[in-house]
# Entry
Amino acid sequence: MHHGTAATAQSPKGHALFLIDEHEILEDNAPLMETLPVNVRQLIKRNATTLRLSPDTLVFEQGRPHSGIFVIEQGSVRTFYASPNGKEITLAYWTEGHFVGGPELFGRGSHVWSAEAASACVLSWIPGHLLRALALQNSSFAMGLIDALIVKGRCYSSLAQILATKPARGRLAELLLTLAERSAIPGARKDLEVPRHVTHEQLAAIIGSTRQWVTATLGRFERDGFVSVKPDSIAILNARGLRDAYASG
# Structure
């Protein structure tokens, strides 16, 4: 049986949050800008436009013409899809060093989902025509774009499958375990913990539920002895029990 899990794409600058099948192996790829030669980064910086956005400000909107991508210099960005009846589904939270604006890159067509600042953000907008010119001239840049799109494509494909087939309680249990495991320091003798900067609202958005439901279910997990909800973290007390709760839905 395939189980859903949340991956955190680790980097020195931040952790991107997204739901993905545990059988999908995603290496901890460096964000796009960190994979590029210094001269290419400098060229991009010279041609990029800096945007400073307050929380909840739209970066781009579903259905609007595409004109390029946005590299996250500071803060985090939530990508989401809105159905015709107004219901939203969060696709991912992307952090510093990653970019949003795909799957189109070169300024053609329209955006197929939206993005908004999840916190105060500094973004670099790179026009599509510049991206195309750089990709033609520099193989490192072209491969960086391809690798980033592969990760995003697998993330969104897996998300659609998991949300359609897995119960919410199970998604939350596995999400907590994976976030805790990814946040653990290798070799450290310490209980697994989910950092408190990951909010109940973010957990809910990632698994396709509500903040109130997540809070209530965390309370149930705590009463069952699986977790301890602390002021600064969520400690995993019984990983096996939590996995069993996940398996049973």
Observations:
- The first strand starts at residue 4 and ends at 10.
- The two ends are 13 Å apart (CA to CA).
- Residues 1-13 have pLDDT under 50 and may be disordered.
- Residues 7-164 form a domain with the Jelly Rolls fold (CATH 2.60.120.10).
